[in-house]
Amino acid sequence: MSIPRVNIAFAGLTAAGKTTHARLLADHLGYEYVSATQIMLEILGIATQDTKRVWFHHMDEIEQARSGDRIDQELERRLLELALAKEGLVLDTWAMAWICPDPIIRIWIDSDRLSRHWKCFVSQGQPPKLALPGCATLIDRKDESTRDSFLRRHNFDLFADHAMFDAVLTNTHLISEPSPVATEEGIRLFAPVVQLVADHLLGRVPWSEVQATLQGADPRQARSVLHLKTAG
């Protein structure tokens, strides 16, 4: 029997870890990684492959272009077209979990405001463009702008409407300070949890194996699963 290759939509606030873990999960599953940010940059004509740092350099330009709905509507049109036409995709997006019809697996990555500030700061590399307060301002601005857009156009609240997600995972407790070492340790601990949960939701791993794996894992990893739909 063939293993289902149902598409997976990641969602979460800025610097929650969507891009890192969507890429790692795509590699784990042998899926194709799809970056909504990269598609948006193509629409805007901004030439860069460094999607993790683009907001540090092009925030004003992007937000000005998104002041109307045309860019977001075209982005969502392209993503929906792709998701409906292909299987075996990991979609690193904002809205697809809400607007794409089933079958699709929806995973929300939760991360509190402070941990996202820290991850944002580290993601700049050296030397950093922004200090921690500047990172806080950037991610708050980006999240509020995106939230307002979705409330106006789709009537869902990015900050609160998570009931439809098949899994809600958190990495808040896995980063202890704003340093590359702490960030890498958080990724090391969180990635296996994301992959285990995805394998379960795809029908590759039974619930009993998920339970046994988490019980035998580092206790911090077990704490990363806030909600998970099961077959049992």
From TrEMBL:
Highest taxon above the source species: Bacteria
Listed name of the protein: Cytidylate kinase
Matches recorded under Pfam families: Cytidylate_kin2 (PF13189)
InterPro entries per record: P-loop_NTPase (IPR027417)
